[in-house]
Automatic annotation (TrEMBL):
Superkingdom assignment: Bacteria
Organism: Corallococcus terminator
Record keywords, A-Z: Cell projection, Cilium, Flagellum, Signal
Protein's name according to its UniProt entry: Flagellar motor protein MotB
Signal peptide positions on this chain: 1-23
Length: 306
């Protein structure tokens, strides 16, 4: 027979365990700390890769406009280790439309812009926090890329410097706002016979946000981080080509590493019109790394981009 003292000790031990991140779904719900949940930046010029710069710039006067549909599975969830598959989180499914514009100003200078708009998102309440509201303008991004070395002028590789900045006008209720966001980076690339390789490294600077009171996990911190990207692109086909890209983020102010593998197929439907799809898994326990993302889009350019 269980003694009353043993029962009381067991109950006390049970309530002393750390709370599950999804244990409480009742009671008052407060807003989350403000930050932009979206990690992915689409390359406005898309010279070689849809997401990784390769050190090249659009030709002078060349304009590229892209319209993209973007789906993310579990882009905001709390876990202590990587566990692919379905689950629950403050944001479980998210759909975003992205408008991108790239323009070659000079032979060595390209400017770009990205305007994301959240179409829909939904998730489960976590402790005292409610999921972000559905829909709204996300952080717009402006970029400038300057080519330092160019193979077209006899250099062994392509090298460029790029600065991307986020404007603080995104929706606060849709979890799409940053007080400030800067992303300077160095881009390298090499165009060979039938292939292209590229890579970039930079620092993403933003306001530090501590979400440990939300998740009760020591790793759930967002802040400055090193960001890396690498890509391999096929250039053998005149109509259809593929690419494989890897993205990674290494936190500098606490937090957890996140990485993604993205595979894309691009088809030149017309000399000025491209159709493409891209998707792949997220790897790592970073709270803003989705378990899977998918992008489908089309782009129009004044002349063939790649």
């Amino acid at each position: 027979m269980l003694r009353p003292a043993s029962v009381l000790a067991a109950v006390a031990a049970l309530f002393s365990l750390p709370l599950s991140a999804h244990a409480l779904e009742s009671g008052p719900k407060g807003p989350l700390p403000l930050f932009d949940l979206q990690r992915l930046r689409l390359d406005p010029g898309a010279l070689g890769s849809l997401v990784v710069g390769t050190g090249r710039t659009l030709a002078p006067g060349q304009l590229r406009v892209g319209l993209n549909y973007h789906y993310e599975q579990l882009p905001m969830h709390f876990q202590t280790r990587w566990e692919p598959g379905e689950g629950t989180g403050l944001v479980e499914n998210k759909m975003t439309a992205h408008l991108t514009l790239g323009y070659g100003v000079l032979s060595w200078l390209e400017v770009g812009a990205e305007l994301p708009f959240i179409l829909m998102q939904g998730g489960k309440p976590t402790l005292e926090y409610a999921p972000p509201k559905t829909g709204g303008l996300a952080t717009p991004w402006l970029s400038a890329r300057a080519a330092v070395l160019r193979q077209s002028l006899g250099a062994p590789i392509n090298v460029a410097l790029e600065m991307t900045a986020g404007l603080p006008v995104g929706s606060r209720t849709a979890q799409a706002y940053e007080d400030y966001a800067w992303h300077p980076r160095l881009q390298l690339g090499y165009v060979g016979e039938g292939f292209q390789v590229g890579g970039e490294a930079g620092v993403f600077l933003r306001k530090r946000q501590d979400l440990r009171p939300v998740s009760y996990s020591e790793g759930d911190i967002l802040g400055n981080e090193l960001r890396f990207g690498a890509t391999v692109t096929s250039r053998g086909g005149e109509v259809t080509r593929g690419e494989v890209s890897v993205l990674a983020g290494v936190p500098l102010q606490g937090g957890q590493v996140g990485a993604e593998l993205l595979i894309a197929i691009r088809r030149h439907a017309l000399s000025s019109l491209d159709l493409y799809v891209m998707g792949g898994p997220g790897v790592g326990a970073g709270l803003d790394t989705p378990t899977f993302r998918f992008v489908a889009g089309l782009s129009w350019a004044t002349s063939k981009v790649d």
